[in-house]
Design brief:
Elements lengths: L4 E7 L14 E2 L2 E2 L2 H7 L6 E4 L5 H8 L4 E4 L7 H15 L3 E6 L7 H10 L5 E4 L5 E7 L4 H5 L8 H4 L5 E3 L25
Parallel strand pairs: 1-4, 1-6, 4-5, 7-9
Antiparallel strand pairs: 2-3, 6-8, 7-8
Protein name: NTP transferase domain-containing protein
GO molecular function: nucleotidyltransferase activity
Keywords: Magnesium, Transferase
Length: 194
């Protein structure tokens, strides 16, 4: 890749169903959001898309030099605005690909992210979710940046992936578990955390 890989961790949501503070909630002694930062470490320094307030895990990653922060001033309008901002930043940087992942999916493996980056070409690469549709984490070529930049509201990249030609990367049955509510934390198999 000549222009490099852009990596965006989506962390700007308000976590209403969780009651706020989701990404700083403790999971096996670490903040939930820190697992996404660790998963991308071998691929490069991510931009963490943040809203208000900025999660502590993101501030810690910034302080350690593990990530930069990108403030989404429209975060309250929905996930689509964070994806759009990430795509605009990737385009402005001339990135060869944009890897998107959510900060509330602590079991996503570094190997899966590397496989997504290796599989992206003319078409995006994505994982297949249990509902039978492709979704994030996913990696997008530059030809997709304008489409992603047009997303608004609560529509994420999955909306665009459903009708597209996508290279699928297989994942294990638990890898795509996310945390929406406090009780979801107890459903995360700790033995699979890295």
């Amino acid at each position: 890749m000549n222009g490099g890989l852009a990596i965006a961790i989506l962390a700007a949501g308000s976590a209403r169903r969780f009651g706020g503070g989701k990404l700083d909630a403790e999971l096996n002694g670490r903040p939930l959001g820190s697992y996404a930062v660790a998963a991308v470490r071998a691929l490069g320094k991510p931009k963490i898309m943040v809203g208000r307030p900025i999660p502590d895990f993101a501030s810690a990653a910034l302080a350690l030099g593990e990530a930069t922060l990108l403030k989404n001033r429209r975060a309250e309008e929905g996930l689509g605005t964070s994806v759009a901002l990430a795509a605009m930043q990737a385009s402005a940087a001339g990135a060869d690909a944009l890897l998107l992942l959510a900060a509330d999916m602590p079991l996503v493996r570094a190997e899966t992210l590397a496989a997504l980056v290796a599989a992206v070409g003319e078409h995006p690469s994505a994982v297949l979710h249990p509902d039978g549709h492709p979704g994030i984490p996913a990696c997008f070529p530059p030809g997709w940046y304008a489409k992603l930049a047009g997303l608004e509201g609560d529509q994420g990249a999955g909306k665009l992936l459903r009708d597209a030609e996508v290279t699928l990367v297989e994942v294990g049955p638990d890898e795509l578990r996310d945390v929406d509510r406090p009780e979801d934390l107890s459903g995360i198999p700790l033995s699979k955390l890295r």
